[in-house]
């Protein structure tokens, strides 16, 4: 397995799954360029957004786990298809914890340089999170 794949997996497991914010500074370049909706930007602004995202996820998703369904590395690029599983364990968009299981498809593409992620495109199925937590039910009722 390529070094870049291992770096990506480590970032997902230690960072997003484990809640370790230090891994952001270690594995995400200070010159990062982010393309994912809601996180667009570059540099320290993006690293701060990632740390907040990790913290926010752990506030409402408990026991977060990523399964790497497919992962491909070509040159300085890594493409990954993952499944995130968790339990809705905290408030989310005004919906208190339901204890419901959460299952979300996630697609990521990263470019690497010198052992760090320097560019990222991500597509988590946010609609699935809204539906499975009950946030869509709340909107429908309104």
CATH topological fold name of one domain? Nuclear Transport Factor 2, Chain: A
Mean pLDDT: 95
Task: Output the helix-strand order.
Answer: HHEEHEEEEHH
Number of helices: 5
User: Numbering strands along the chain, what is their spatial order in the largest sheet?
Assistant: 2-1-6-5-4-3
Alpha-beta content class: alpha+beta
Second rung of CATH, namely the architecture of one domain: Roll
CATH class of one domain: Alpha Beta
* Fraction in beta strands: 35-45%
- The strand count comes to 6
Q: Compute the gyration radius: what is it?
A: 15 Å
Assembly category: single chain
Q: Give the low-confidence spans.
A: none
Strands, helices and their partners?
Blueprint: H1 3-17, H2 22-27, E1 28-34, E2 41-42, H3 44-60, E3 61-74, E4 77-88, E5 101-113, E6 116-124, H4 126-133, H5 135-141
Parallel strand pairs: 1-6
Antiparallel strand pairs: 1-2, 3-4, 4-5, 5-6
